[in-house]
Each structure stands twice: as structure tokens, then as C-alpha cells.
Amino acid sequence: MVQPLALLKESPSQTAGPYVHIGCVPNFSGIPGVYEQDLGRSMTNDKTLGECIAIEGRVLDGTGTPLKDALLEIWQADHKGLYNSPSETRGSADPNFSGWGRQPTHMDSGIYRFETIKPGRVPFTDGRLQAPHISFWIVARGINLGLNTRMYFADEEEANTADPVLNRIEHQVRVPTLLAQRTGDAYRFDIHLQGEFETIFFDI
Fold first, then answer.
1. Which end of the chain is more exposed for a tag (fewer CB within 10 A), N or C?
2. Is 6 a residue whose pLDDT tops 80?
3. 129: which residues sit within 8 A by CB, 6+ positions away?
4. Is the pLDDT confidence value at 112 over 80?
5. Residue 113 host element (H or E)
6. 7 to each of 3, 11, 21, 107, how far by Cα in Å?
7. Nearby residues of 145 by Cβ (< 8 Å), 6 or more positions away
8. How far apart are CA 140 and CA 144, in angstroms?
9. Sequence-distant (≥ 6) Cβ neighbours of residue 109 within 8 angstroms
10. Which helix (H) or strand (E) holds 182?
11. CA 164 to CA 153: how far, in whole Å?
12. Gap between the Cα atoms of 109 and 30, Å rounded
């Protein structure tokens, strides 16, 4: 007998609890031996091409309090604007650059840090070049679905002005929430979940 489809109900959404760290970053969680090092921790090696940079910041709630149990993943192109992906058809990406990273926020300071390279420009769907950017995915306790955003570089002003995604944002006064400021070899990118400086998130 066929079961009526009306009986297939959507199950309740669950927020990301402590188990997301145990499963995704076991070494960070104090569980050694699962992986030699947590997946996504290292994106480069000593043969990686391009400008080495660091990205650091915090994930802040509506009161400005850093979340100390957030987990972030990033995806980006290499220095030539090519992705380390089987679907990349424009050329061969740098084999010494993963293009993907995963980092938790520090349990005391709430700070995350990625060591990567500055990405090149990639084409939009209509062929126009996008400004250099890095895609972020954020999950934490209290977030039902992972949040997607982008980080652009404040020192790429000309490219940012012409970027087809940034130009589609209705409230241009909010664009600065996607811009990382450079200090030395590091870019600072704080992600605000709510409040006056709420980061722009993308529905993808």
C-alpha cells in the first residue's frame, strides 16, 4: 500500500549545537586522531602562488557580543581568478592552493583567522569581471540555516565600483558591511548578524 504523501511532514529545523565542532574540527575540540589536522585548516603551502594574506575578525550578535562557538568556511579563486574545482573550464587552477578553508572562532576571544592568498577576479554570468572577493558561510548555535555572505577588499576601490553584484544591492549605504580593511598583511572582516551594522547576507 502506498503511503499518502500528506504524511511526509517537514521535520523541525535544528540549530548548530556543540556537535558541529566535534564533527568538523575535532582537533580543535580536543579530539585528536580523527584527522592529522582539521580539514580546511591549511589552504596554502610553500609553493602557492600569489600574495599571501590573512583574514581575521569576529562574528557579532545584535548586542555586539562576539560568538565564541561559530564555525566559518570560505571559498575563493586563486591568484589568477581560477577555482580549484572540476567545473572550472577556463584553465588550470594553482594545484598548491585548495581554494577552501574552515575555521572556528576562538573559544575565548571569538576571533577567527584564515591564512590564504588574495584572489583574482572572476567573471560574472554575463562575462563582466567581478571584484576580488571571498565567499563566506557561517554557522553557530542559534542559526537554523548557514548564512552566506561575501568579503570584498576595501583597497580594490575601482574594481568594487564596477562589481556587478555590489551594484545590484539596493541600499548602497550597506555595501561597506562587505568590505574588509587592511592592516599590515591582514584584512579585518567582522560579521554582524544583527543591529545597525548588520552584514549583507545572500540567499543562495
1. N
2. no
3. 121, 122, 123, 159, 162
4. yes
5. strand 111-117
6. 7, 12, 34, 42
7. 13
8. 8
9. 58, 66, 68
10. strand 179-183
11. 15
12. 18
Strand partners, 181: 188
pLDDT for res 4: 62
pLDDT at 12: 63
Q: 100 by DSSP, 3-state: which? A: strand
Q: By three-state DSSP, how is residue 202 classified?
A: strand
* 183 C-beta neighbours (distance < 10 Å), count: 10
Can you give the pLDDT at residue 13? 62
Mean pLDDT, residues 50-68 taken together:
95
> pLDDT tier at 140 (50, 70, 90 boundaries)?
confident
Alpha helices in the chain (DSSP H): 19-24, 157-162
* Strand bridging mode 147-153 / 179-183: parallel
For cell 583574514, the residue is 55
Report, as an integer, the average pLDDT of 130-156: 93
